[in-house]
Amino acid sequence: QVQIVESGGGLVQPGGSLRLSCAASGIIFSFDTMGWYRQGPGKQRELVATITSIGITNQPDSVKGRFTISRDNAKNTVYLLMNSLKPEDTAVYYCNARHGSVLNYWGRGTLVTVSS
């Protein structure tokens, strides 16, 4: 059974940093694409960053230059380093792992709160 487990969320002050981790288990291959999405209070879920198995990344302008996504294919783990955090980054961050057109898995989410 595939499991997607996030960790690393918490409370941080504006301007601070956090590193999220997401580990996928229960599979014997590397997912084509892994990434992070977030859902803030009263908002729809939105893309934060994705990375393919060969390292191609995709990020919206709202996080470019502040957030860095990386992955370890051998461990089926993806990371999100978040710098210069803003209150508007407050959200539940969800890890996603996809393979082909059929396999699509989500974690339960980890809460990031940016507040003084």
Provide a descriptive summary of the structure in words.
By secondary structure, the protein is mainly β. It contains no helices and eleven strands. It has strands at residues 3-7, 10-12, 18-25, 33-39, 46-52, 57-58, 67-72, 77-82, 91-99, 103-106, 110-114. The strands form two sheets. Strands 2, 4, 5, 6, 9, 10 and 11 form a seven-stranded mixed β-sheet that branches. Strand 7 (67-72) and strand 8 form a beta hairpin.
Q: Any low-confidence stretches, pLDDT <50, length ≥5?
A: none
Strand content: over 45%
User: What's the tally of helices?
Assistant: 0
What is the mean predicted local confidence, pLDDT? 95
How many extended strands? 11
Structural class: mainly beta
- Helix and strand sequence: EEEEEEEEEEE
Estimate the helix proportion, in percent.
under 10%
Work out the radius of gyration.
14 Å
CA-based shape:
globular
For the biggest sheet, the summary is: 7 strands, mixed
Question: Could you tell me how far the N terminus lies from the C terminus, measured between alpha carbons in angstroms?
Answer: 40 Å
